[in-house]
Amino acid sequence: MSLFSEIAGAQAESLRESIRGVRMEIIAHLERLCAVRRGSMLLASDYGVTDVTFLFHSFPGGMEGWCEELTQALLRYEPRLREVEVRSLATERLELTFRAEISGALITDGRVVPVQITAKIDPHRGWSVQ
Q1: Could you tell me the CA-to-CA distances from 81 to 20, 72, 96, 100, 128 in Å, in that order?
Q2: How far apart are CA 27 and CA 30, in angstroms?
Q3: Could you tell me if residue 109 is left (phi over 0), alpha (psi between -120 and 50 degrees) or otherwise beta?
């Protein structure tokens, strides 16, 4: 193995680790953002999202508006993501679980990397983001 290939391999691994770390930070921020009820923070009244119980009472009509609200919150409060799009994921089963796919471009180390995150909420377990 040449010195060049060792350096290139180390740089690629470093970039993967950096992307993985930033992605985990974004997931943690997304969990916080979704857990805050919009209008409840004094200094940032538009931080957070509408109470998710609204989704279960307005199913399926409220999902589109909620996805747009989350998109706008991410564009405003998550500067590491660009070209954010949130869409609801339908399931075949009848259940009280909301799933959303968040896609966009992650900006890290001066590079643009596509990213896809799935957020899920159900009445028993609360939020989970992957």
Answers
A1: 14, 12, 29, 16, 19
A2: 5
A3: left
Residue 76 has pLDDT above 90, yes or no: yes
- CATH number of the domain that residue 82 is part of: 3.10.450.40
Task: Report residue 75's pLDDT band, with 50, 70 and 90 as the boundaries.
Answer: very high
Average pLDDT, the chain: 78
pLDDT > 70: percent of the chain: 70
Of residues 3 and 59, more confidently modeled: 59
Task: Quote the number of domains for the chain.
Answer: 1
By C-alpha distance, which of 88, 37, 26, 30 is closest to 63? Answer: 88
DSSP annotation of 93 reads S
Q: Domain range spanning residue 20?
A: 3-129
- Three-state SS for 31? helix
Beta-carbon count within 10 A of 3 CB: 7
Locate 35 and state its tokens: 């857990």
